[in-house]
Fold each of these.
Amino acid sequence: MDSAAIVALLTAAVVVGTPLLYAAMGELLTERSGILNLGVEGMMLVGAVLGFMITVNTGNYWYGILAAMFGGGMMAAIHAFISVTLRGNQVVSGLALTIFGTGVSGFMGKPYQGVNISMPFDIINIPVLSKIPVLGPVFFSHNILVYASILIALVLWYILYRTRWGLTIRSVGENPAAADAVGISVSRVRYLCTITGGILAGLAGAYLSLAYAPSWQENMTAGRGWIAVALVIFALWNPLRAILGSYLFGGVEALTFRLQATGVTISPFFLSMFPYILTVLVLVIVTIRLRQEAGAPTALATPYDREER
Amino acid sequence: MKRRKIAVVVLAVMMLTVFAVGCGNSQQDSDGKTENADKAKVGFIFIGAPGDAGWTYSHDQARQYLESQVPEVTTTYRENVPEGADAEANINQLVQEGCKVIFANSFGYGDAVLEVAAKHPEVVFMHASGVKTEENVGTFFGRIYQPRYLSGMIAGKMTQSNTLGYVAAYPIPEVVRGINAFTLGAQAVNPDVKVKVVWTTTWFDPTKEKEAAKTLIEQGCDVIAQHQDTYAPQQAAQEAGVYSIGYHSDMSKFAPDACLTSVVWNWNEYYVKTVKSVLDGTWKNEPYWGGMEDGIVGLAPISDKVPADVKQMVKDKEQAIKDGSFKIFAGPIKAQDGTLKVPEGKVMTDEEMLNFDWFVAGVEGQLNK
């Protein structure tokens, strides 16, 4: 591969990795507060379909983006209600959310299959920065949603590690009883984080249906929600690592086609399996490493009940 | 605690119910149930949804045409029917509802069709892209490789880089045949042309198909053809300012500047003919593989970007295909590695074409077996 091809690959890694980044950040925030939400795929699909529907009907993709955020947030609210208020099993509720989201998005989106929106997000070249060789085209020549995702990741990192809010969120995820004792409302923090996580998952879906491949197809997320869940573990619950991980996974997906086009003799079936193999590998490696260093929020997936302290 | 558990269960059931409503394949009657009692009912089992602008869309267009052309017929259909046990249940339902003819539009429905057909000899079953006929089961398909050859001619004339791209779904004979025909068509007008192939291993995943098309464009392809069910490759071509060739239905509305033409299915007349023959008792269970001469496959209107002399050339070739004076897979044809696969004076048989497992020279891509 020549240098132009490598720049093209890296650019594609960012473009393909962006929906993963949105979804992974949402899940990361949710898990930091101690809630495991396996409904990312479902929330993404609802975000994708709502974003597309509203954009078609209003002709303004910003309304579509808002609708996608609203849809993702509402889905997450269901999960928050079950896991926080009812203290139900978070795994079951999350899985139900994915199944529900898949079904309801397919149902709502039926009349929108094959509908055309010819108004993609414009590529915005950032002055000066986009002229830098390699880094310019890879990071500074994208649509606004790509920039927003990087910005949100940086802000999320700052909030989690440098502010009082972040401390609150992390303490709720690590030791809700202690947080409760110092007067933090565990339920409120968990509700807020879960719903914000859903909003980000909705954005991930809208990126797919509005910016990346403007169209609606049933099940168009094609497992990206699950990759995002694995990415959070890969990132060791750190937003900066999530950026890296998303682009790595995006790069692997982008690479599969480029390997084919450059004439490497690997079965296409094997190549399309690649991101998933990587997911499994990452999970294995991280799980082994986790024995040595703390990673997951201690109270992850454990309902908090004041009376059971 | 108990109350809480019950609440969780109730919520879960609620969600699953909505899911069932959402995902369950919906049934649609074309018009009210009244006054249709004396009409012959025709049923359809669709693998996708009619709105997909692709394969199922083309079948649904024909269903509507059938209804408008044959007044003594009423139709009903099931969409998004998965292959396997669900297919059998849905076909059975259509039989219970009194359908006289049932069309099934996916290869994977084969077993289900044969199973139900054996129990209901009074019903005629038509299996698209199927391979096995029975007393009451017919199979039908179109020679889509013919218009693909013509679209290859257009691509071969319009390319500047002499590199064409092909976003392909799976390495199966149907797709390989199309790629080969496209390549031969392009080479017929431009001997220097080569065709790069990328497999997506999916029929409809817009993001993957778009990424695959973008890859091909990066590699210097300036006309993108596709054997996929979404229009994402067309969007990629439109955004990059290169040309494209659509598939299934006229895709020019999705990529007005890029789309030169589309390779399309048109089942209209075939459906009408088949249903009429069932009604008047002349139907036979022959396997049908129709070409451009029957109008079952064809080219969508060609873009004005294509010069008039190229259009004329395509038109002449189309005529030659229709009257049988030109055969696409006639020797000499060399394979990718240069071996002579079809010698001078020989024409590939249908049998050979249905088992295509090699690329013609000029295709750049892998066929892993």
Amino acid sequence: METDWAAEHLQTIRTLMERTAVYRRALAPIMVWNGIAGIFAGLAGWKLAFNSAHVFIVFWSTAALLAIIGSFLLVRRQAIKDSEPFWSPPTRRIAQALLPPLFIGAFLNGCAVCGTWSDKSDGSYLAFIQVLFWLFLYGCAAHSAAFFMTRGMKLFGWIFIAAGCALFLAATVPDKNWLSGLSPHLLMAGTFGGLHLAYGIYLYLTEKGKNAS
Amino acid sequence: MNPEAFLNLDRVIHEKGRLAIMSMLAASPELSFTELRDALSMTDGNVTTHIRTLQEAGYVAVAKSYQNKRPLTTVSLTTAGRKAFTDYVDLLEKIVQQTRKIK
């Protein structure tokens, strides 16, 4: 009998500690926003033919910055709605987990832009390499943040890493003709935009299911 | 089972509501009054009473500030509170282990 209450107390403590440490803001609108922004940016970049390497990087860095600002505004709106502080401890932990891979990405972007500034030729190949780096780094960032979020985020991070690996392997095949026909902008729209949108829709459907039950 | 372990349990923390507050604070550097109230589905009066008891025992620190021109009360564990919580959890684990051995 006494073991039961002691074990129950320990279980309650564990549950409460986990619930407090985990980021609780709804991810679905953030994922959908990032997905739509990614797809829109991909189509815009492809239509406007931003093909030189430095323009590609600057264009997508700007798109990423807008996506991050939009995400923060969505988090802030939710925080105000729930009368909770915006910069809560779980939000801080997530930001800290995301920071190292995102910093490396920004650093590499800066180096690549400086290195290709005067090069006006078609930079599809360099852009393709850049997409690979972004997929790997973003996958690592999502996986790190997942330690303070819902478990699905870990899988989400791994999907980005797997997509990067698949693209890398595809690029090593001897016949690279297919690469020249593949716009890096559409690749970004399909990976970053498509994956975010798919995860957002999945979250909306599952959250609705949970609420209904 | 050795009843000494049970008698040594910290009575301030052992109460259900205070244990819940201490558990949440142990997992976070600080939490607002509203976060605690909403997460634990307690009334304002209940949370206030428990926090006052914990504060008098020296286990939590309360800070009052303003956010967006609205008063914000945040609560955090003190060093003594963290130690008391760790000791409490250790003792609970001992009780569980002791009774498992008897079984």
